[in-house]
Design goal:
About 50% of the residues lie in helices and about 10% in strands. Helix 5 packs across helix 8, helix 9 crosses helix 11 and helix 11 crosses helix 12. The chain folds into 3 domains: about 130 residues, HUPs (Rossmann fold, 3-Layer(aba) Sandwich), CATH 3.40.50.620; about 70 residues, no CATH class; about 70 residues, Uridine Diphospho-n-acetylenolpyruvylglucosamine Reductase, domain 3. It is built from 12 helices and 6 strands. With about 290 residues, the chain is of the alpha/beta class. Strand 5 and strand 6 form a beta hairpin. A 3-stranded parallel beta sheet has the order 1-2-3, with helices on one face.
């Protein structure tokens, strides 16, 4: 085991050696490094590669992944999904990809991905949960590594990796953040902001977990208790209660709070549903 591999493994959150794991391996430097590190940690690795059929040269990705997997003694499971070009391509590709991968799949997300995710969620108006970005742990064992680390590992081991040209297309939000926004922020602040952003995400996650615990003790259908509770907990209790099938937006939460306080009799929350106050209780039902 090289010194670089040992140094990187010390920062990873892999399960104990000999554990069977599944790794998502696209052929890029991050996922190839994931496979190498998992094997060197002594895990029993199965690599899963998803061909989205979006590029004419996508079969080359399979060849690179299979070649390295063979060297490492790793079985490769191939998946093919069909994605049409068009709006929300990134989101649709991600949904299709995770639809065929095992639920406990490991991914090669790094600290750089974490920082980008936090900024994406900030732009979408996220609160503490969204600003927590991705949850560290076994399924994302490389979150403490940098993108430069995975590239350095592949370079040291002379591993050929895929360069997906779609990652250079700044019409996609994540790519724009990666290639334009974060470098501009680094220049403006005269420092590398990735560690700052990931540390902030960790703080947000701790705060979010505490707020979830406190809000779980609040009955969101009790109008009196809801109105008397701290607003942060009242909002969170309502959001949890009304999150099926989709979480309500902030404006909807505020309307429900007005019903709880008695300022309104009822309000529409979308999807043909409404909240009414009756005998100091909030009642969820169909719009009358």
């Amino acid at each position: 085991m090289s010194q670089l591999i040992a140094e990187l493994l010390a920062q990873c959150t892999f399960p104990p050696s000999a554990t069977p794991v599944s790794c998502a391996v696209s052929g890029g430097a991050d996922s190839m490094a994931l496979m190498v590190l998992a094997v060197n940690h002594g895990l029993h690795v199965t690599a899963h590669h998803v061909n989205h059929s979006l590029r004419d040269d996508s079969d080359t990705d399979v060849e690179l992944v299979s070649s390295l997997a063979q060297q490492l003694g790793v079985e490769v499971v191939l998946h093919r999904v069909s994605i049409e070009h068009g709006a929300n391509l990134e989101a649709r590709a991600r949904s299709a990809r995770y639809g065929v991968l095992p639920s406990d799949i490991m991914t090669g997300h790094t600290a750089d991905d974490q920082a980008e995710t936090m900024l994406i969620n900030l732009m979408r108006g996220a609160a503490t949960q969204g600003l927590s970005a991705m949850t560290p742990g076994i399924c994302r064992p490389l979150l403490q590594l940098r993108r430069t680390d995975t590239h350095a590992l592949c370079a040291e081991l002379d591993i050929s990796v895929v360069h997906d040209h779609t990652n250079d297309d700044t019409s996609y939000l994540r790519n724009n953040i990666r290639h334009n926004l974060l470098p501009a922020m680094n220049t403006m602040s005269q420092r590398d902001l990735v560690p700052i952003l990931t540390r902030a995400a960790n703080v947000m996650r701790d705060d979010n977990e505490l707020l979830d615990i406190l809000a779980a003790a609040l009955d969101p259908t009790d109008a009196v208790a809801l109105t008397a509770a701290p607003i942060a907990l009242a909002r969170r209790a309502l959001r949890t209660w009304l999150s099926h099938p989709y979480p309500p937006d902030q404006a909807t939460i505020e309307r429900v709070l007005m019903v709880a306080s008695g300022a309104r009799l009822a309000c529409d929350i979308g999807g043909g549903r409404e909240i009414r106050r009756s005998k100091q209780r909030l009642v969820l039902g169909s719009v009358r």
